[in-house]
Specification:
0% strand, mainly alpha, Growth Hormone, Chain: A, Arc Repressor Mutant, subunit A
């Protein structure tokens, strides 16, 4: 039975009326919102630079404050009730494809409404399960919005966590805080201009899924095992979030100079450091262990989003990637139930981390392998710029360096017709860096820009490619 105070109902009614907007059209102003406010709202939050940042910030605020063992739940931990239907939702959305876009706004509004009324319901486990399922569509919608922006929108990971930390310290009563985090979902009901031109998901990504599963097993252990020990001795509840934010900011800074492998390497290092600190126990070591763990997951989450973003097929990549991550967290959560049996879950974390890193770098060595040729009787599939560049790579002598990940990414986007400025925005690096990666790649291929463009147009592209 739901018992909503009149004050909450008075706030919710105009809020939901103002957000009844189709996702891909210019909004018609709701009666409860003045034209001026609606115009300013629309002008700010639908700009390309804000689409992904605002969506991710709002979603992360909601996620870490509430269903993912957030501060709003206190000592209650309904993580399995949230994650099981959440995972089932990702499986469904992977097969539904573009039809999800017509459902995502409705499901997001339902998840926001259930969040706002959650403290007033009796069957909390049932409501949490419903929230888990409906919000899986929201998570994919966040990925879709990220795809329309630039890499720096991933800083929403930091913004959302900082907002959650600030809200946890705010002197509001619980019902108001639930209402605030539900607004984090409602920002995704803002109109969305533009559409993603999806590309085929490459095989390398499917081979990465086990890595995400094993790596985030440690995250599941954190939610149930490490967090309970840390919570008893924390210097300030929630302060560990600042180290997560630091990891995200450093990820963005490092990405301007290094490949994404540097991010996962640093994530692994900080997770490895955290485990012996937890093992040593004591107030100082437990706090230091959690700070190191959060710093590591700041790098890891940035790497996760970057991997999914680079595929440019959000309705396929994000459901699969989030499925693997959530399945890993849930498995780690159940394993951590054995936390009273000596050091079992710490040893398990070491093992999961070792397997994930070993698997990742072993697959990274195979990323450039040539895929078997198709049956000659089948019609030839038009190759993508990356396929074309990988075939050209085979002409590079063994004693010379192959194309780096950044060089491959830059050249492939240039072959698609993107300008240096567009590539710069998508990758979150400077235009001069884009030109430098292009120059290095062309030197390795021993081709000029014009020769590469002509060769691609002649062999693979139905339209003439131009390097701008």
């Amino acid at each position: 039975m739901i018992h909503l105070p009149k004050e909450i109902l008075d706030i919710l009614e105009p809020l939901f009326l103002s957000c009844q907007v189709a996702p891909f059209v210019t909004p018609s102003v709701a009666p409860s919102v003045t034209p001026l406010v609606a115009e300013v709202w629309y002008a700010i939050f639908t700009r390309s630079w804000a689409v992904g940042l605002v969506a991710l910030s709002g979603f992360v605020l909601w996620l870490v404050s509430f269903p993912m063992a957030g501060f709003l739940l206190g000592s209650a931990n309904f993580l399995p009730y949230f994650l099981l239907p959440h995972i089932a939702g990702f499986v469904l959305w992977f097969f539904v494809g573009e039809r999800l876009l017509s459902l995502a706004n409705v499901f997001t509004a339902v998840a926001a409404l259930l969040t706002a009324v959650y403290p007033y319901v009796d069957s909390k486990e049932l409501v949490m399960s419903a929230i888990g399922f409906f919000s899986s569509a929201t998570a994919v919608l966040v990925g879709y919005r990220l795809q329309l922006g630039a890499v720096w929108a991933f800083l929403g990971l930091a913004v959302g966590n900082l907002l959650s930390f600030a809200l946890s310290l705010a002197p509001f009563e619980g019902g108001v805080k639930y209402l605030v985090v539900s607004l984090g979902l409602l920002v995704l009901l803002l109109p969305l201009e533009g559409k993603v031109n999806a590309q085929k998901v490459e095989r390398e990504f499917y081979r990465l899924l086990p890595f995400f599963f094993f790596f985030y097993l440690v995250g599941g252990v954190m939610y149930k095992g490490f967090m309970e020990f840390y919570g008893n001795v924390a210097y300030l509840s929630g302060v560990e979030v600042l180290f997560y934010v630091l990891g995200v900011l450093l990820s963005y800074a490092l990405l301007k100079r290094y490949t994404q492998q540097a991010l996962i390497s640093l994530a692994s290092v900080f997770l490895v450091i955290s485990l012996p600190l937890f093992h040593m126990g004591g107030d100082v070591f437990l706090n230091a262990g959690m700070f190191s763990l959060q710093l590591g997951f700041g790098f890891a989450d940035f790497f996760l989003l970057l991997s999914l973003y680079s595929l440019r097929n959000p309705l396929r990549a994000y459901p699969l990637g989030f499925f693997a991550v959530c399945a890993g967290i849930l498995t780690g959560y159940f394993v951590s139930l054995a936390r009273y049996y000596g050091d079992f879950f710490i040893v398990f974390s070491y093992l999961a981390l070792f397997l994930s890193v070993l698997y990742y770098f072993s697959q990274g060595g195979k990323a450039g392998e040539k895929v078997k040729e198709s049956d000659p009787q089948k019609p030839e599939v038009r190759k993508t710029p990356k396929d074309f560049l990988r075939e050209l790579e085979e002409s590079i002598p063994d004693n010379k360096k192959k194309l780096s990940g950044r060089e491959l990414e830059v050249l492939s986007m240039l072959l698609e017709g993107c300008s240096y400025e567009v590539v710069s925005e998508r990758m979150g690096i400077t235009t001069s860096s884009v030109r430098e990666y292009a120059r290095r790649g062309l030197e390795k291929l021993e081709l000029s820009k014009e020769e590469l463009c002509a060769l691609y147009s002649e062999n693979f592209s139905p339209k003439s490619a131009t390097l701008k």
